[in-house]
């Protein structure tokens, strides 16, 4: 296709307003190359006759040509556009009138003017569409130059108006036809789309006869959901395959629909599938009625919700299970919590009781009459009560953390104490634990005391602790010692007494046997003592007895024993060497000499003392190492010998040397 060439300088296709729109309309009118039509031919004939012009045309200006829809006076069907006058005529609003082309500079060179019939006159009235496109002209041509009267021009324009009206009618018809075609195409598209929706929809669609309840049409999805073929569906009513429990509700809703109370309804219901199984579906039902309002068919949309229902059911079961489990767990927790609360309560009670007990114990310990000392495994003080402070002189503050031995154990026993502690740490063995012991101790000021002590070892959380309870028994020990002393000593002279002698003699016998040494028992009875008593009084007698005792004690060796038996009777036991009777006699003699010395009895500090003198008779019993007489026999023998001595005369010793042969 070639671009239109301008027929005359100053006219360009690009300058033509909306040439493409004009051409499109021209073609749409379907006038080009069409058969002659009387409506147009009548007008061209009238035009030719009106002006007396040899040629009249209804010319359509195509892209490259002008084609004559109706022509009078020429056999030509068309001419090229570039030489056409009409191309110029359609470019202006007013009719184009050329009175003499030969003298018109726009057309003088036109081949139609210069050659052939050599046209001189032209009148062209543009034929415009409704939209204003000039599709061509009604024109007339003459070979003679001429001028039109205004009437002729007006009449020609009227004829052109007839043509334009016809064209516009065609234009309207074409537009209406096009609309119709478009609507038809749209309808066909909609129908096709609806059908494809119906066929391919993923949910079921069915039409059910409103009068019989029979399935009329079902899509593939409905067949798949319910398991019946289209054929099988058509033999069934919707009621036949609705679950019996859902029929009543379905019918009630259908009645509402038919009565116009509702326009559609949705519900979940169950159908019985072909295989007998139940399927849950969501249905949407609406009613299609004919123009008279008579119900025709129901349109039913069916969505398979079995999976959702199963999931819901499973979920509900799971929920129920979970709830039951949560309930169980909650119950267990409540129970556990209850037990825990109880246990905590008990624990708190126990702790409170323990604290009270602890306070009570520490108060008891603190205020106890006994000393309480705690020490750790290394012998360091961890507890030191008030009585400990009073007894030992160290305050609790001073004692805390110090080694116990430095505080209360006499220097001589400290090493022993340390060894004992070390042994216990190593072996767990201790001889002192749990026993009542009497031990020497020392105070802060260095003074000694005796304590009665009981030590316990306790292991708490792997920590070894020793607890010692003790009290000062020094006074008691002293009293005991005194009692012991008094039991065995004569209160007047301080010498051993008869009781001591009874213990002493068997011991002497055992020593004698052990060492193979004989010992001697000297029975001493004073001579003339009664007279001292009588003359100087009982106190003087006592003083004399004290002096006698002193002299006896001073006259024998340390390991010899001096006993006041009773009244003015004394016993001396000589030990430590193999005594013979002669040796015993020698001692006896010495004693007699000693006792015979006068004794000064002080009456008053100012007076001269009374001088008194007594004598003594001594009986001897010798105990040989091999002898085993009863101690009483030995004493009786000495007593007997003393009597013999008394009989022999005051100051005697028996047995005499002659009697024993020494
Ligand atoms: N002062 C004093 N006299 C006592 C004590 N015990 C006994 N006598 C007295 O000692 C006297 C002892 O009597 P005798 O044995 O006859 O005294 P004696 O004069 O030495 O006579 P012979 O023993 O027979 O030589 C009695 O008068 C007792 O009362 C005492 O503890 N103190």
From TrEMBL:
One of its GO terms (biological process) is regulation of DNA-templated transcription. Residues 190-261, 357-410 form the PAS domain. Residues 517-658 form the GGDEF domain. It comes from the Bacteria. Residues 265-317 form the PAC domain. One of its GO terms (molecular function) is catalytic activity. This is PAS domain S-box protein.
